[in-house]
Design a protein that fits this description.
By secondary structure, the chain is α/β, with parallel strands linked by helices. The protein is built from twelve helices and twelve strands. The strands form two sheets. Strands 3-2-1-4-7-6-8-5 form an eight-stranded mixed β-sheet. Helix 7 packs parallel to helix 9. It is elongated and about 65 Å long.
Length: 332
């Protein structure tokens, strides 16, 4: 058996059967389907216990420990060489597994592949603009590696990846309850390329009760903490000390950092400098003088110009030069 499909679900009775049927009705039939019930308190257990398809294996966890833990549990039990994810409130097209399997087998440099997506609403109204924004976010980037430390390259539930690579990087980081997917793909880039099948094979449900949409500030916090962690782990681990970087931005943006991130940032030592021509030059000088290990730039309209300036000064984007976005009263 080459493919194991994994779903983690918590209180998912509303959309679970739509998600499950979309996998069981795949054109590619040879797979096992492991569904991990993460301590649900609704009818999820009853629904799962009623399944009779021999490809389905259900794991019931007594307590809710978060999606990352549940996914790790399911993938550990998987027999397949390749893992396909399916989120419990989304829908896969009938050709999804077949097309992702063919795509990834055709490029030995790939460790993971997603697909283009379309957004669908839930049972409660969702603004059309939000659906369009989500589709644009997951569908329009081309060179995904450029965004390794900035955003997630593929929609989580559309993921199809090599189990060996997953095991090698240590699986999902269970300290993250929301940004566990962003953190996983950031680390997986170190083992190979991540791409997308250039077709819509996955329907991503946008609804206000999902963790990512319910608390966007908490999502932003987790994404940034994962960014700091991965920068330290993947780019500066050889230092055997906490890396020191300058982060440029606006004072209003730094308010968010001080309040939400600083107490939890055990990964990087950050010097905060307000964005100005003088401080840009100061950051470049400090790097050349080996007083700092790198620079984090703000994500705003002139970021490309700043990247070019620092690259001319000897920094390398993605190695010791990074881009981050932090909310605040102003815009970068």
């Amino acid at each position: 058996m080459e493919i194991s499909v994994i779903t983690a679900v918590y209180n998912g009775e509303e959309y679970l059967m739509q998600a499950v049927r979309s996998i069981l009705e795949q054109s590619h039939k040879d797979f096992e389907y492991i569904i991990v019930n993460d301590g649900s308190r609704d009818r999820t257990k009853e629904i799962l216990d009623g399944m009779t398809d021999p490809r389905v294996k259900v794991i019931h966890l007594e307590q809710n420990s978060g999606a990352a833990h549940a996914l790790n549990t399911g993938i550990k039990a998987a027999r397949g060489k390749w893992i396909a994810l399916q989120d419990a409130d989304d829908i896969s097209s009938k050709q999804r597994l077949q097309k992702q399997w063919e795509y990834i087998k055709g490029d030995p440099g790939l460790v993971a592949v997603g697909s283009l997506i379309k957004c669908i609403g839930g049972n409660e109204p969702v603004a059309p603009g939000e659906l369009l924004w989500e589709e644009a976010f997951f569908n329009q980037k081309n060179n995904l590696r450029l965004y390794q430390f900035y955003s997630t390259p593929i929609c989580h539930g559309s993921g199809f990846f090599l189990k060996k690579a997953f095991d090698q990087i240590g699986g999902y980081d269970t300290s993250f309850r929301i940004a566990y997917d962003y953190d996983l793909w950031t680390r997986m880039f170190e083992l190979g390329e991540i791409s997308r099948v250039p077709e819509v094979l996955y329907s991503y449900r946008v609804h206000k009760r999902s963790l990512a949409h319910k608390n966007k500030m908490e999502t932003t916090k987790e994404v940034l903490l994962s960014t700091f962690k991965c920068i330290a782990l993947l780019r500066f681990n050889h230092l055997k000390r906490k890396p020191r970087l300058i982060m440029l931005g606006l004072e209003s943006n730094f308010d968010f950092y001080r309040e939400k991130l600083a107490p939890f940032n055990s990964y990087l030592k950050l010097d905060l400098l307000e964005l100005s021509a003088e401080n840009v030059q100061r950051a470049a000088y400090n790097y050349q003088a080996r007083k700092i290990d790198g620079v984090i730039l703000p994500a705003y309209r002139q970021t490309g110009t700043l990247i070019s300036y620092f690259e001319q000064g000897g920094l390398s984007y993605g190695e010791n030069l990074f881009v981050a976005w932090m909310p605040g009263r102003g815009e970068w």
